[in-house]
Amino acid sequence: MLRSLVGSEMCIRDSPYSGDHIPKLLNFLSGSERPWVALCPNYVYTKPYYEPAFKQAPSKPFFLTPPGRYVYHTPKGMRQVNSHALQTAPFVSMWYCGFGAVTGELIKWWKRDSEVWESEGVKIARAKKHLPQNMMGSYDPNRRRRRKKQREAAARKLRKQKKLAAQAGS
Q: How many CA atoms lie within 13 A of 100 on its CB side?
C-alpha cells in the first residue's frame, strides 16, 4: 500500500477493489497535502467509510466521470483465452479527485472550458448530488430510476455496442 508521496507531485491510483483496499486508500489520500486522483467504483461514495475518511480533510473530493463504462483488458497470460475473458467491466468506475486548496480554482477553470471536455463526454461534479444519473451508485437516494421504455432503450443500445465491439475485436 502507499506509504508516502515524498518526492512526488501527485498521486494517481487505481486501487484493487477488494477487501479493505478502498477504505485504506481513502484514509491515506484524505491526509495527503498533495493533489490526488483515484479510479474507484462509482458506489464508493455511498459506503459508510467514505464520509468519515474525509471528515477532517481540508476539502471534499470532487468527481470526474467518463463518457461511459470503462472496460478493462486482462494482461496476456492471466486468463484462459476466449472472447469474454480478455475484457471485463465489473463496476461503473469514475475518478475521485482531491486538489486541496486549489480545488475551487480548478473547477472554475474546468467550467470555463466545459464545452471542450463535455464534447468528449467527460463531466465534473463538485459534489455527489451533482453526479450524472448514469454514474450515481445504486444506493444513492438522489438517483432516479428510469422508466421502463428508457431501460429497454438503454439495454438495446448496450447490446448494439457489445455486438459492434465483438465485431471490431474479431
A: 11
